[in-house]
Amino acid sequence: MEPRSRSFYVLAVVFGLFVLFLYGPILTIGVLSFQGPGGGLTFPMNGVSLHWFFDLFEQQAVGDIWGSFRRSFSLGLMVMVVTVVVSVMGGLAFRHKFRGSTMLFYLIVASLIIPSILISLGVGLIFNILDFDVHWSTSGFGAQLTWTLPFGLLIMFAVFNRFDKSYEEAARDLGASSWQTIRHVVLPIIAPSLIGVALFGFTLSYDEFARTLLTAGSHNTLPLEIVGMTTNVTSPVLYALGTLTTVFSFLMIGSFLLLVIFLKRRRAGAGSDAGKGMV
């Protein structure tokens, strides 16, 4: 093996500092959430216990933690499903040139450029002008889609740009209809990418604050509830909540990754079985 150059160690140190900067606040919150009953919000820690995690499951004097969690989880699932469906439909549509496609594309990605708080304000004003209820499941849902759909569509663009059209042609030569080709050929091939879009949709919705601030109505989502608690709660119970939500986020990411691995192995197994059958 060739000896590593000095630049390698310099880059390794820079990368290590970047990782520490990125995950340091999360680790700090995680450590402080295990303080004893007399613990505070800063170091040094006063004892070590699970007191604040148990306290989190009791009735809180301020806020509605578990109600806001259920709303964020439900909203994330709603956004995830719509993002996947619309992104796939949009990706299929943009495979063919049609009048106004360029302008439509720029209109879709424009919401990524506009400040999120202005999107929230605009959606809230539209609902008020139309005399609709400003609610997390309607106006909040629509505001978050302006954030997730562009990302989903951009992912689908990358997927279909690398998609081999010969699979579709072979299916049509065998008599498959357009719907059968999409259902039995296209969707199974791009399934791992669809899981990626679903993960994007859910995680972006679950922790979105700015686009939900003025569109959630009188019922907070979890990010809004946490921000509200920072002005009232002065105990490590807030850190315990942050630790649990972080663990939940990593569990969701891990679940999606395991699903991708399962689908890849299943497809590889199906391909090997087909090859044995041909032999």
Largest sheet: none
CATH superfamily membership of the domain at 64-232: MetI-like
Order of helices and strands: HHHHHHHHHHH
The outline comes out as globular
Main location: membrane
Protein name: ABC transporter permease
Domain ABC transmembrane type-1: 69-262
InterPro entries: Bact_Polyamine_Transport (IPR051789), MetI-like (IPR000515), MetI-like_sf (IPR035906)
Q: What would you say this structure looks like, in words?
A:
This protein is mainly alpha-helical. The chain has a domain at 64-232: MetI-like (MetI-like fold), CATH 1.10.3720. It contains 11 helices and no strands. It has helices at 6-32, 51-56, 65-93, 101-109, 116-129, 139-161, 166-173, 178-206, 210-213, 222-229, 237-278. The longest helix is centred in the last third of the chain and has 42 residues, at 237-278. It is globular and about 75 Å long.
Describe the structure concisely.
It is built from 11 helices and no strands. By secondary structure, the chain is mainly alpha-helical. It is found in: Cell membrane.
Give me the secondary-structure topology.
Elements: H1 6-32, H2 51-56, H3 65-93, H4 101-109, H5 116-129, H6 139-161, H7 166-173, H8 178-206, H9 210-213, H10 222-229, H11 237-278
Task: Please supply descriptive tags for the structure shown above.
279 residues, mainly alpha, MetI-like fold, 11 helices, globular, membrane, Bact_Polyamine_Transport, transmembrane helix
